[in-house]
Every structure is written in structure tokens, then in C-alpha cells.
């Protein structure tokens, strides 16, 4: 659980980094997402990335399977529940990783349908664009179109919020599962975990928000 | 300290034996002094039940000093009741006020079956210790106590883990009924001392295997165990246990 | 009747000689010999583990849900050992001498010397097991001092030494369980000894969960069942601590020695009301820094902090300038009672004295300030620093006090009062720890052998582990060597059947009374009689009265007790009734013994035998003996005397002035 979790965390860093390229548009309105489109094209065209992508999907599926098994197993350990639940001793999101994970999964399905499926298979809503003689998908345009609807933006924001809480527990928990018990490192990892979760979430939420508010595009 | 008296409603889980179906019963108790301990309040209630010809509430308790680990009640939604770093036997009625309703339940875990009313069977803990929670040293062949100096910080950390009283509150508090805090306290206690080193790998592997066999859940690091532990055993012991487990698994030769 | 079997030769070589010549059992034969160990405290767990290691087939019993919960776990202060790590003049002889003197010259020299000899091995063994004793920065073991001694020989693990030692023994025991050498029976209570041809051959035990009676055979039976302080109802013992196993043994022929020798511990949290179920000890180590006082004015109503220095009576420092607040337990307890009886007591009940850390806080604060080179600090700043030091030393005890009383002992002095804590008396045993019933042994607090009339602090843990780890493995072997020809007896033997029937009919009888009063109410009444008439101070008339009252109470118990529930299920009230029934008989014998002993010594203080300044008046000419009582029938005992011969130590009047 911890190991797959950390691999997904690494993916999130890359994902957020590349997506952040859309903000290049803010500095230069003429840019029109060129930097982002190039980066997305690069990510879609190298064999190495393709192989990593398979790994990523395997990681996600493994993480989900592990999560489902863990939750199912743990549920069986208390056949008769308490009349009064013990809530003061732990954070609600620490106890709700399964629920948060499910929400993220639902969001992910929608998200994949919006972008990944289009780019890879259907080409839905994608215009070609050419930079330096190389034709590529205008992913930037697709984002702009997708995020023109407030409803979609709100669903994205909620999905990212689920991600925040999932990470707030998951990040530090993963390191404990992997055996980091040094008090100093644990304190560091704990703050790093909250910081990381917050930054990732803000970056992700800012994107649809920026499109819908017209800050970019 | 001002003393006061109170009337209370106590809602207690009653269950005739491990096979029977249990249910909650409500009792009202009157004129309870704030100076009394929680168990003394139950004593008073039991005396009344006996006089009325009813069966008293069965509950585990022995030393009533917070050290033997036998008492085990889940009071108002927390193992050992509302106070921090405390056992049920050391909980005093000052924690409540006149008119309160107090809900008392047994530890709930498939690995801790209810024996009667509020008593549960915690023998799984003994079996986990049997799997390796010891140093294999027969009586008589020890070297002088001062022949191996031990770093004071390590000795103190080992002691802090060894303070575990084996009450099972960690399991009762955990949403997964995990026994990781209990197990990790024992593993940490012995892993931190040179005397525990020779059996370090086999100990952690065998104890974890036994824990799984007993039907405890897996740890998801929620921290509920640490928050309710009467001896404030740190959750960092669980991380240490994971470290020991990975180390043993990765370096195992068979 | 009483043959102590003390080996001949000089005191220092008796044990070595014994070990060199005792009979041994070869490993193949050990596997065929079965040993029953009742109780899993320090003595029981260490004995069961060690005998298992040697290869005997051991069955261990405890009434708690796990062997780790035996009441040895509650011992706080520490364990003595003559290691002389501090280079302060300690030696085996000095530990031996201190223990004999502390016991007011009523203990057996040979046993005590053996105890001192093996004390060092105990520490080594515990360290090897992974017991995390307190250590110095250099990594070596730390020591502290305790009452009644002038050297630092007490090893400790914060305020939880008993817990750590018991867990060490428990782990050793569980290891033997895993190896199949020991079979553990938790939630089982021994209710009778089975005797065949005059020898103890097994027990009848009740499975407390199922409610069924079980028969268990053993070539030998070891009782490690602790003391009987709960006869007083209120004591520092655990709620379940009881005399039943020892008492059954006594009624089967084992002599009971010095039952009146009970230790009243001076520093306990006072009783707060009628509902009180037990008392809590505050470690003796607190007397290292705390000062004990009462107001000089009778019936003082001001708060402690409002009473000026000159109106306080530090009565221990006044009466015993040499030892001050660190006089032995019996002396400190009596002095507190004397002040309260005179009307100087404090708190709502007026049955308490102050234990004050204000001076210590200031003293430590100044030392800390000095260490940090700070001058011109205000008193408040010094107090803050001092509190930190006190917190580090006694924090857990102060927290416990605050939980129980709701008062903050850093701000106001603690209120303390003496409470029953330990019983020096117990089953009479010879040098081999065998009772007067062959094959039946008693270890730890359950026997009488090592502490005389008063036990020194940090010696109970030492004795329990000495008996279990280092004495019984030799002495049991010496006797079991003759048993190798005897096969295990089937539990279908008529003796087992008859004994089980007796136990069952006794339980039936209890259940059939169906009276009106609860078991608890009888126990409380017994405790009150014992505390008032056979407690810290006793006198002839009071004891006679107590005997009559207890006999009456016993009759009432057997005609009006009410036990709900049924026999064939878990029934804690029935368990309690079984125990209280035995306490009712023991209480009478204790009074009998106290009545017989026309002297004051150690924990036994007869008001009619005291010096003009109120100190204990011993009578060595007439009472330098162990009083071993043989059970003859209801209310009937025969006294056997084992004279105490002091070859090495010369008894003097114990003085701590």
C-alpha cells in the first residue's frame, strides 16, 4: 500500500509539473498553450514514457486492489460494532481512506475520459496544432473547452479536495509503513506531507479555475 | 477540590456468555460521589443489583492502580473512558456530572471474543508473546549485569516501549482492530537492547505471523491506538516494527 | 513437627554446601516428573519458567486472564541486590544483616543469607532477559537508596520495577509455553490440595469461565500465591489477591507461620469514603525528598499552605533525627497513626498526614539555578525550575496522586496515611521451601521465611525471584530425585474424586444459602474488625474481642450470604465468596497469633508492650521463635515453635534515633 502509494505520489509530481506549463500562457497571452502542448506531446510520443504509463496503470490498479483487500479484511475484524464510535483519537480522513480513494477513482474515470482517452484513442474535441513543423494535439484547447463549464470545474475541485485529504494521511503513513521511525525524520515527513498535499491540490485546482475565470486561454 | 454527588444513567452491554446474544441495559445510579473511582461506581451498582436479586455486571479488573492491564471498558466511545493516558480503574467520577448518561461497552474485536458482559478474552496477546516476545536465555547462564554497557537513550526508549500493560485498548480503539501497537511495543523493547539482538529477525517475523493468525486487522496508521494508550506508547514503535519486519524479510536467507 | 533442615556448617557456606551435595534428577527423568505451580507472580512465573527450562513437565495456574497481570506487577520502587556497584561498602553480609535487623530479629539467618547471596544473580538474569533497568550516562546500571539501609543497592526501572521484572519472568514463562514445557491455565483458581498417602499430589481448580472443577496431578505442588493483605478488605493488594490456596494447604496440614506479621506501608493515599474499594501506594522513594508533617495545633482548619513553618510538626525528624523521614516502614506508620490518634490529623477524615515537597522543590531549584550559573533569580523562578526536577524524578507518582485525589501535589502537600501492604507471615517452610506437607512448597510472599516481623523496601521482588529462579530448582530436585520411580497418578484416583466432591459440596452449600447480604458487605465488615483490632496497633482485649466478632461474622456469613447466578458458569460473586470464606477463618488465626505474641516487634505492635517513649518492646527471651500454627478443626489450632538461633548477628534493640 505504502510502496504503490509513493509511486503514485511520484507520478503526481510529474503530472502537476507538466500541467503547470499551462500557466506559461498567463505570462504571454500569445503563447496559447504552446509550451504545455509540446510537453504533452513529448509525454505522449516517447517509448519510455509509454512503458512508464503501463507501470502507472499497474500501480493504480495495484493500489486499488490492495486498498479494497485491506478494507475488506479490516472490516471483518470487528463483527459487532460500537454503539458510540471513537472519533477523537484519529483524523476523519485517516479513517476514511477507502471512501476518499473511491471518490478519487470516480473522478479519475471522468478525468481519463476527458483527456487521456481523447489524446490516445478517440480524438474527441482535439484540434491539430503545429509547432516548428511538427503537428500535435492541441491539448490546451481541449482543456479550455472542457473547463468552460462551471459544473465540470466544481467536480474537478471536489476531486482534488479528496486527493488532498487522501494525501494528507497517505503521504506520511506510507513512510511509516516503510519503517521510517526516526523521530526527527518523521516530524519532517509529516510537515512535508501536509505541504506536498496542499501544493499539489492547489496546482491542480488552479488549472480548471484559471480556464473558467479566463486567467489563461 | 470541590466534591459533589450525582445521579447517573449507566447503559451497559449485558451478555450472558460468548455464545449468547447481548444487548444494552440501562440502570440508574444515585448519590455517586465525585471522589469515587469509576469501578467503585460499578461496584455500587452491582451491590444494588445483588440486593434486587439480579446478576451483577461482570467486568475485568484487578490491581486498580493502572498497571496490571486487566480492566477493559469502552466508556462513552473511548477505551478506558474520557481521560488521557489513563486506565478505567484510575478514571474517577469527577470526569462526569449530574444527569449524565454513560455508555459502557466491551472491547470489540473478532480477536477478543466477549466472555461475559464487559469481559473479553485477550489470550491472543499471550500467544503473540509466545511466538517470540522474549530473549531465549535460560536461568543461570547470564553474565554480570554491568558487562554490557547500554546507551542510556536506548535503554530509556526500550523502557518506554516496555511500559505496555497489554490491556488491549489499542485494538479496541483501532478501526481495523489492529494489534500493531501492542506488538510493536514488544518488538521495540527487545530490538533496542543488545540482549534482544540475536533473535531480532526471527522474533519480528514470527510475532507478526502470529498476530495475523489471531485475526487482528492491519495497521493503517490512523493513530487512534496511540491516542488512547494508557501508557502513551508511541506510534513510532509501529514504524520501528515495520522497519524491523522489512529488514528481517529483505535479509532473510530462507 | 518442624524440621527446618538448615544445612550445617558456617553461615556463608551453607548454600554452597547444599548445592554441592543435593540430589539431582537426570534430564530423561525430569521429563516424567510433573510439577504444578499455582500463581504467576514473580515467584510463580520465575519458578515455572525455570523448571520448564530444566525439563520438568510444568502446569501453571493463575486466576487472572493472563499470567502477566499478577500483582507483583504493581511493585514500584525497586529490587535490592548486593552488587556493590556504587563502591559504598555493600556486601552480601551487609544485605543479610540489614534484612535481619529490618525484620526485627524474627527471620531465619540461613534463609536470609542465601537470599543475599543470590541477589546479584537475579540482576544479571533480569538484564539478560532484557529488563530495561535505569542506567547512567555511561551505560551502566543505576542505583537508589531505600528505607532502613545506608547503602545504595536498589536497582529500578522508573516507578515500575515490579512490572518490568514480572514481564521478564512472564516472557520466560511464555517461551516455555511455546516450547511445550509449561501448560498455562489462566482464569483458573485453585480450590483444594489433593493429598495421597500424606503427600501433595495435585490440586482441584475451578475454570472460572466455564465454572467447572478440574483435577490436576503433580509430583509436587508449588504455591506462589502471594500474601493475604486483603483480609483487611482495604489494602494495596489487587482486588483478586487472596489467601485461598495457602489456606486450603493450611487446612490440609501445612503449618501457617507468624500470621500476625503484616506490613502497614506509611505512604498511601488516604481513604476518601465508605465506597472505597482499595488503597493506592505512593512509592517509598518519595520519602527521599518529601518531608512528613502535621500541624502543631489540634483540629487545625487552615489550608496546609497557610500554616507557617513554626506551626508545623515534622514529627519523624523530631523523633528520629538519625534516619528522619527515611525510618523503616513500621516505624513511620506507627508514628503517623500516633499523631492522628492524638487529633493532629489533616484532611476531611482527619486520618492523614502531609507529605510535603515544597522544600525539595526549592532545594532542587537552587541546584539547577547554580548549574546554569543563574543568580538573582526570584523565588518563583527557582520554584519553576525545582518543579521540573521533581517532575522528572516522581512525575508518574504525582500524576497518579492527582488522578485519584484531584489535587495538584506540586502546589499543595500530598495527604498520606498508612495502609496494609504486605504480609511477612505465610505458610511455614523449611530451608527447601517445603511446607509441613511433603511435596507441597510455598514461594515468595506466600511463605514466611525471609522478612521476619518487618520487610525492608525493595526486598519482596528480590525474595520472589530468588525463590523461583535460584532456590526451588535445586531444592525441588533434591526431593523429586526420590520420585523418579513413581509414575504420574491418574486423576481418576479415589483421592482426586473425594477431594473434588468436597469442593463441589462446599460450593453447593455456599450457593444454597441464598441469604440477604452480599459477599462484599461481609468482606468489608471483616476488614473493619481486622483494621481496628489487629491493624497497626493491637492489644489484648481488642484481640479477644476481634476473635469473638469474627466467629460471629463467620456464622452470619454461612447463613445469610447471597450469591447470585449459578455454579456452572462464570460467576465472579461465587469466586469472591470462596475467597472471603477463607479470609474469615484466616482473620481469626491472625488475631490468635497476635494475641499469643506478648511483645512488640516489627509490624506487630502491641500497645501493652511498648517502651516509655512509645517504641516497640521486643521480648527475645520468650518470643524469639517462629509461631507455626497447625490446623486442628474449626476455631482450633496448635502452636508449634521453631526457635530462632542467631549465630552470626547479635540481636539488639532496633534504634533509628
Can you characterise this structure?
- The complex is a heterotrimer of chains A (217), B (254) and C (657).
- Chain A has 217 residues and is mostly helical.
- Chain A contains 9 helices and 2 strands.
- A two-stranded antiparallel sheet of chain A has the order 1-2.
- In chain A, strand 1 (128-131) and strand 2 form a beta hairpin.
- The model of chain B has no long low-confidence stretch (mean pLDDT 96).
- Among the domains of chain C are: 266-420, Flavocytochrome C3, Chain A, domain 1; 494-618, Methane Monooxygenase Hydroxylase, Chain G, domain 1.
- In chain C, a hairpin with a 2-residue loop joins strand 21 and strand 22.
- In chain C, helix 3 (42-54) runs parallel beside helix 6 (161-178) and helix 3 (42-54) packs parallel to helix 12 (460-480).
- The longest helix of chain C has 27 residues, at 379-405.
- The interface between B and C is large, with 81 and 84 residues.
Instruction: Flag low-confidence runs of chain A.
Output: none
List how many beta strands of chain C DSSP finds: 22
Please summarize the sheet with the most strands of chain C.
5 strands, parallel
Structural class of chain A: mainly alpha
Q: State the total count of DSSP E strands of chain A.
A: 2
CATH topology of the domain at 266-420 in chain C, anyone?
A: Flavocytochrome C3, Chain A, domain 1
Judging from the principal axes of the Cα atoms, what is the shape of chain A?
elongated
Strand content of chain C: 15-25%
CATH architecture classification name of the domain at 266-420 in chain C: Alpha-Beta Complex
Mean pLDDT of chain C: 95
The succession of helices and strands of chain A, N to C, reads HHHHHHEEHHH
- Biggest β-sheet strands, sense, barrel of chain A: 2 strands, antiparallel
Which value, in Å, is the CA radius of gyration of chain C? Answer: 25 Å
Largest sheet of chain A, order of strands side by side? 1-2
Which overall shape of chain C is indicated by the principal axes computed on the Cα atoms?
globular
Total discrete domains of chain A: 1
Share of residues in helices of chain C: 25-40%
Mean pLDDT of chain A: 93
Amino acid at each position: 500500500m505504502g510502496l504503490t502509494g509513493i509511486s503514485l505520489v511520484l507520478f503526481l509530481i510529474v503530472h502537476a509539473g507538466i500541467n503547470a506549463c499551462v500557466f506559461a500562457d498567463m505570462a504571454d497571452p500569445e503563447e496559447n498553450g504552446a509550451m504545455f502542448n509540446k510537453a504533452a506531446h513529448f509525454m505522449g510520443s516517447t517509448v519510455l514514457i509509454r512503458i512508464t504509463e503501463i507501470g502507472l496503470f499497474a500501480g493504480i490498479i495495484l493500489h486499488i486492489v490492495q486498498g479494497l483487500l485491506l478494507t475488506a479484511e479490516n472490516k471483518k475484524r470487528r463483527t459487532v460494532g460500537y454503539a458510540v464510535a471513537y472519533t477523537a483519537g484519529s483524523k476523519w480522513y485517516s479513517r476514511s481512506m477507502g471512501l476518499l480513494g473511491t471518490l478519487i477513482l470516480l473522478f479519475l474515470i471522468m478525468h481519463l475520459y476527458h483527456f487521456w482517452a481523447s489524446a490516445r484513442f478517440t480524438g474527441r474535441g482535439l484540434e491539430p496544432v503545429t509547432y516548428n513543423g511538427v503537428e500535435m494535439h492541441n491539448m490546451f484547447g481541449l482543456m479550455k473547452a472542457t473547463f468552460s463549464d462551471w459544473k465540470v470545474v466544481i467536480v474537478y475541485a471536489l476531486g482534488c479536495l479528496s486527493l488532498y485529504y487522501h494525501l494528507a494521511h497517505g503521504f506520511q503513513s506510507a513512510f511509516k509503513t516503510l519503517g521510517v521511525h526516526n523521530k526527527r525524520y518523521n516530524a519532517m515527513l509529516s510537515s512535508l506531507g501536509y505541504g506536498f498535499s496542499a501544493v499539489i491540490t492547489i496546482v491542480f485546482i488552479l488549472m480548471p479555475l484559471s480556464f473558467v475565470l479566463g486567467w489563461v486561454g | 477540590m470541590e466534591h459533589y454527588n450525582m445521579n447517573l444513567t449507566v447503559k451497559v452491554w449485558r451478555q450472558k456468555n460468548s455464545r449468547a446474544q447481548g444487548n444494552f441495559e440501562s440502570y440508574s445510579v444515585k448519590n455517586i460521589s465525585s471522589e469515587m473511582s469509576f469501578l467503585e461506581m460499578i461496584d455500587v451498582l452491582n451491590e444494588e443489583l445483588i440486593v434486587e436479586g439480579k446478576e451483577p455486571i461482570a467486568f475485568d479488573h484487578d490491581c486498580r492502580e493502572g498497571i496490571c492491564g486487566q480492566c477493559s471498558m469502552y466508556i462513552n466511545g473511548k477505551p478506558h473512558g474520557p481521560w488521557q493516558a489513563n486506565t478505567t480503574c484510575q478514571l474517577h467520577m469527577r470526569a462526569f456530572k449530574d444527569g449524565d448518561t454513560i455508555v459502557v461497552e466491551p472491547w470489540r474485536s473478532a480477536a477478543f471474543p466477549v466472555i461475559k458482559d464487559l469481559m473479553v478474552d485477550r489470550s491472543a496477546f499471550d500467544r503473540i508473546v509466545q511466538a517470540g516476545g522474549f530473549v531465549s536465555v535460560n536461568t543461570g547462564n547470564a553474565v554480570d549485569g554491568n558487562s554490557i554497557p547500554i546507551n542510556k537513550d536506548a535503554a530509556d526508549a526500550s523502557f518506554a516501549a516496555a511500559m505496555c500493560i497489554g490491556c488491549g485498548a489499542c485494538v479496541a480503539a483501532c478501526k481495523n482492530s489492529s494489534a500493531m501497537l501492542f506488538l510493536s511495543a514488544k518488538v521495540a523493547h527487545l530490538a533496542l537492547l543488545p540482549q534482544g539482538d540475536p533473535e531480532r529477525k526471527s522474533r519480528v517475523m514470527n510475532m507478526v505471523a502470529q498476530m495475523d493468525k489471531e485475526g487482528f486487522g492491519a495497521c493503517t496508521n490512523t493513530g487512534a491506538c496511540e491516542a488512547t494508550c494508557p501508557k502513551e506508547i508511541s506510534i513510532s514503535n509501529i514504524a520501528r516494527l515495520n522497519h524491523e519486519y522489512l529488514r528481517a524479510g529483505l535479509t532473510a536467507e530462507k | 513437627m518442624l524440621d527446618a533442615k538448615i544445612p550445617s556448617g558456617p553461615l556463608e557456606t551453607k548454600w554452597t554446601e547444599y548445592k554441592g551435595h543435593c540430589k539431582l534428577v537426570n534430564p530423561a527423568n525430569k521429563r516424567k516428573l510433573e510439577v504444578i505451580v499455582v500463581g504467576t507472580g514473580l515467584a510463580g512465573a520465575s519458578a515455572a519458567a525455570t523448571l520448564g527450562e530444566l525439563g520438568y513437565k510444568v502446569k501453571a495456574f493463575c486466576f487472572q486472564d493472563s499470567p502477566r497481570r499478577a500483582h507483583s506487577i504493581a511493585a514500584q520502587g525497586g529490587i535490592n541486590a548486593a552488587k556493590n556497584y556504587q563502591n559504598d561498602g555493600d556486601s552480601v553480609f551487609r544485605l543479610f544483616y540489614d534484612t535481619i535487623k529490618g525484620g526485627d530479629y524474627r527471620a531465619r539467618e540461613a534463609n536470609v543469607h542465601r537470599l543475599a547471596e543470590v541477589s546479584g544473580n537475579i540482576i544479571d538474569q533480569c538484564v539478560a532477559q532484557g529488563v530495561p533497568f535505569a542506567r547512567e550516562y555511561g551505560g551502566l546500571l543505576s542505583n537508589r537508596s531505600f528505607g532502613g539501609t545506608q547503602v545504595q543497592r536498589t536497582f529500578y526501572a522508573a516507578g515500575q520495577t515490579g512490572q518490568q521484572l514480572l514481564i521478564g519472568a512472564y516472557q520466560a514463562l511464555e517461551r516455555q509455553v511455546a516450547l511445550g514445557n509449561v501448560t498455562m491455565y489462566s482464569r483458573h483458581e485453585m480450590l483444594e490440595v489433593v493429598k495421597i498417602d500424606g503427600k501433595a499430589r495435585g490440586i482441584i481448580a475451578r475454570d472460572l469461565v466455564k465454572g467447572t472443577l478440574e483435577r490436576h496431578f503433580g509430583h509436587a505442588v508449588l504455591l506462589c500465591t502471594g500474601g493475604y493483605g486483603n483480609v483487611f478488605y482495604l489494602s494495596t493488594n489487587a482486588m483478586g489477591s487472596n489467601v485461598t490456596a495457602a489456606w486450603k494447604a493450611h487446612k490440609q496440614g501445612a503449618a501457617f507461620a507468624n500470621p500476625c506479621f503484616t506490613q502497614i506501608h506509611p505512604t498511601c493515599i488516604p481513604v476518601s469514603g465508605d465506597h472505597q474499594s482499595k488503597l493506592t501506594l505512593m512509592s517509598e522513594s518519595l520519602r527521599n525528598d518529601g518531608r512528613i508533617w502535621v500541624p502543631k495545633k489540634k483540629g487545625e482548619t487552615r489550608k496546609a499552605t497557610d500554616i507557617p513553618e513554626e506551626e508545623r510538626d515534622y514529627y519523624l525528624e523530631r523523633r528520629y533525627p538519625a534516619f528522619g523521614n527515611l525510618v523503616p516502614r513500621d516505624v513511620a506508620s506507627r508514628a503517623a497513626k500516633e499523631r492522628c490518634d492524638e487529633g493532629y490529623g489533616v484532611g476531611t477524615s482527619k486520618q492523614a498526614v502531609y507529605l510535603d515537597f515544597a522544600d525539595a522543590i526549592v532545594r532542587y531549584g537552587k541546584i539547577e539555578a547554580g548549574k546554569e550559573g543563574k543568580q538573582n533569580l526570584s523565588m518563583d523562578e527557582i520554584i519553576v525550575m525545582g518543579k521540573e526536577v521533581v517532575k522528572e524524578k516522581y512525575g508518574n507518582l504525582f500524576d497518579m496522586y492527582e488522578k485519584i485525589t484531584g489535587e495538584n501535589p506540586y502546589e499543595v502537600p500530598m495527604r498520606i496515611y498508612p495502609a496494609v501492604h504486605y504480609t511477612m507471615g505465610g505458610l511455614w517452610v523449611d530451608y527447601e521451601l517445603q511446607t509441613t506437607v511433603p511435596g507441597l512448597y510455598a514461594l515468595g510472599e506466600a511463605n514466611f521465611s525471609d522478612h521476619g516481623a518487618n520487610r525492608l523496601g525493595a526486598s519482596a521482588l528480590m525474595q520472589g525471584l530468588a525463590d523461583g529462579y535460584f532456590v526451588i530448582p535445586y531444592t525441588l530436585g533434591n526431593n523429586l530425585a526420590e520420585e523418579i520411580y513413581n509414575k504420574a497418578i491418574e486423576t481418576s484416583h479415589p483421592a482426586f474424586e473425594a477431594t473434588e466432591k468436597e469442593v463441589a459440596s462446599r460450593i453447593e452449600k455456599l450457593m444454597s444459602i441464598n441469604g440477604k447480604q452480599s459477599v462484599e458487605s461481609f468482606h468489608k465488615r471483616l476488614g473493619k474488625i481486622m483494621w481496628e483490632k489487629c491493624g497497626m496497633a493491637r492489644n489484648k482485649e481488642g484481640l479477644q474481642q476481634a476473635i469473638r466478632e469474627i466467629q460471629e461474622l463467620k456464622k452470619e456469613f454461612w447463613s445469610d450470604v447471597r450469591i447470585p447466578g449459578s455454579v456452572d458458569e462464570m460467576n465472579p460473586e461465587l469466586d469472591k465468596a470462596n475467597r472471603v470464606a477463607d479470609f474469615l477463618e484466616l482473620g481469626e488465626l491472625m488475631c490468635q497469633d497476635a494475641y499469643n505474641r506478648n511483645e512488640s516487634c516489627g509490624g506487630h505492635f502491641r500497645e501493652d508492650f511498648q517502651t516509655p517513649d512509645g517504641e516497640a518492646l521486643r521480648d527475645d527471651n520468650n518470643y524469639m521463635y517462629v509461631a507455626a500454627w497447625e490446623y486442628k478443626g474449626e476455631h482450633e489450632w496448635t502452636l508449634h515453635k521453631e526457635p530462632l538461633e542467631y549465630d552470626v548477628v547479635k540481636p539488639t534493640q532496633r534504634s533509628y534515633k
